[in-house]
Recover the amino acids of this structure.
């Protein structure tokens, strides 16, 4: 009888270890994690820089996602930010909280679901002078349709 109990315990431990391994693999491969883990820190720097090198000011001034250049880079909150020109860089230096994307640059939809996820800088939305980024167009549409901003705001606290 004792061996049956021992076998059940061993089976449970093996199952639990496998479950953790599968979850860790999913998190690593999809770059998704619970908000509390903040795999990449407070600012999403999964590519080694903020917004994968896109200029955060250009979303506001040019109404498009524009890749920044290394020549106009700036370190803020221990993350490298790139800009298309000195004017955009200076605007960010003077008011980084105005131009930095919401939720640390993680996918806004993911944050509304209680997790963080990487983004595609080409999929974005400006609302109330705030920049929201997404992993793809489908989740952006869903986030906007479902009013995900309020939930994401509450989750990000």
């Amino acid at each position: 009888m004792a061996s049956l109990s021992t076998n059940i315990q061993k089976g449970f431990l093996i199952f639990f270890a496998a479950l953790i391994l599968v979850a860790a693999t999913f998190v690593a491969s999809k770059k998704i994690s619970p908000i509390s883990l903040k795999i990449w820190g407070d600012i999403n720097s999964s590519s080694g820089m903020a917004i994968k090198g896109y200029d955060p000011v250009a979303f506001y001034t040019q109404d498009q996602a524009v890749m920044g250049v290394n020549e106009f880079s700036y370190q803020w909150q221990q993350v490298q930010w790139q800009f298309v020109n000195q004017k955009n860089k200076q605007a960010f230096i003077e008011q980084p909280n105005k131009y930095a994307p919401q939720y640390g640059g993680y996918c806004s939809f993911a944050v509304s679901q209680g997790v963080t996820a990487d983004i595609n800088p080409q999929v974005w939305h400006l609302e109330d002078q705030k920049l929201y980024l997404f992993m793809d167009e489908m989740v952006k549409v869903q986030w906007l349709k479902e009013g995900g901003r309020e939930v994401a705001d509450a989750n990000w606290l």
About this structure: The helical segments are 2-30, 58-61, 86-94, 96-99, 108-112, 137-145, 148-156. The longest strand covers residues 69-76.
